Amino acid sequence: MTRSPGGSVSTVLVRPLLLALAGSPAAASELLQASDLTPEMLSDPDARVSPAQFCVAWATAVRLSGTPTLALAITEAIPQGAFGVVEYVCRSAPTLRDALGQWCRYLGILDDAVDVALVDTGSVCALRVTRESDAPAPASHELCFALIVRHARAMLGPAMRVTEVSFTHRATPAEVAAHEAFFGAPVRFGRKHTELVLPAHVLATALPTADPNLLEVLRPMAEDRRARVPTTPLLTDQVRRALRAALSHDDAQLPAIAKRLGMTGRSLQRRLRDEGTVFQTVRDETRRDLADRYLGEGMSLSEISFLLGFSEPSAFFRAFKRWTGLTPIERRAALPG
């Protein structure tokens, strides 16, 4: 899977932080402003943020909540299914080991700025962070491990045991005590690896939620989502999605797209420039890509013109020739099949 430089993080992972600050609209607003996000972006299930934005969001949430162990505090509040197909693939797996293997494979759908792997060391096995983000958000690892343990306890009951938990970041004695109370095991900070260590026999335990038929359905969906993790700059990708939805309604102008993303036109242009492009270029590229797809699907030129938001087919002809050096008819003739 090709990654964008530095990776990216789904806004799905930012939503729990807003949930933690739900009692204070001012704090929630400050978090969004600090991380350069908008409510509209967070409501988009396909939107992603940079590792730096994710890091800032976590640091801001911890500061505003006044709770250093915020990750533990919000674990119980996150509803089942919050992480979509990734979570359901894991729950449908036959054993806990298989579930964690699915988590390692599909984590990039949620966060491809880090890598995790199962590392066997004899009688125990570690779920280990093998590649850390360029802009680490240490509390996000605390939340990840806490959620895994919470769900495993709900499924396995007393059979679920943790051997040890380690984090590379530091913590106060009070924070260590809170983590040890939650995990029921030694929790060590300032270590070489960030990892959740479990007994091998616990990993071999069958999950009561195992469903091979459902897993067969979910895996192709997860593979498709994994393959579609964006490799383009993050805001540019969001603008393209907004344009695809807006083009046929003749609503693909800068002010309208900025409004869809909860931004001003000036702010949108500034951030696009930061990503090395401008709105007009993104709109032309989106129209060109869609035109190529529609031509391959055999749509009429008048239909394509309408769907791309052109006032008349002749305007589409001129634009397409400018983009590709070919007329739409010449391009269609050159397509395979």
Give a written overview of the molecule.
It is a single chain. This protein is α+β, with helices and mostly antiparallel strands. The chain has two domains: 158 residues, no CATH class; 101 residues, Orthogonal Bundle (Arc Repressor Mutant, subunit A). 56% of the residues lie in helices and 8% in strands. It contains 18 helices and seven strands. The strands form two sheets. A five-stranded mixed β-sheet has the order 3-4-7-5-6. Strands 1-2 form a two-stranded antiparallel ribbon. A hairpin with a 3-residue loop joins strand 3 and strand 4. Helix 2 packs antiparallel against helix 4 and helix 6 runs antiparallel to helix 7. It starts with 8 loop residues before the first strand and ends with a helix. The mean pLDDT is 93.
Keywords:
18 helices, alpha+beta, single chain, Arc Repressor Mutant, subunit A, 337 residues, 7 strands, 56% helix
Cα gyration radius (Å): 23 Å
CA-to-CA gap between the ends?
28 Å
Taken as a percent bin, the fraction of beta residues is: 5-15%
Strand arrangement in the largest pleated sheet:
3-4-7-5-6
Q: Report the count of strand segments.
A: 7
Question: Secondary-structure map with pairings?
Answer:
Blueprint: E1 9-10, H1 15-20, H2 25-34, H3 39-43, E2 48-49, H4 51-65, H5 70-75, H6 84-92, H7 96-110, E3 115-120, E4 124-131, H8 138-156, E5 164-166, H9 173-183, E6 187-188, E7 195-199, H10 200-203, H11 212-227, H12 234-246, H13 254-260, H14 265-274, H15 279-296, H16 301-307, H17 313-324, H18 328-334
Parallel strand pairs: 5-6
Antiparallel strand pairs: 1-2, 3-4, 4-7, 5-7
Helix pairs in contact: 2-4, 6-7, 6-11, 12-15
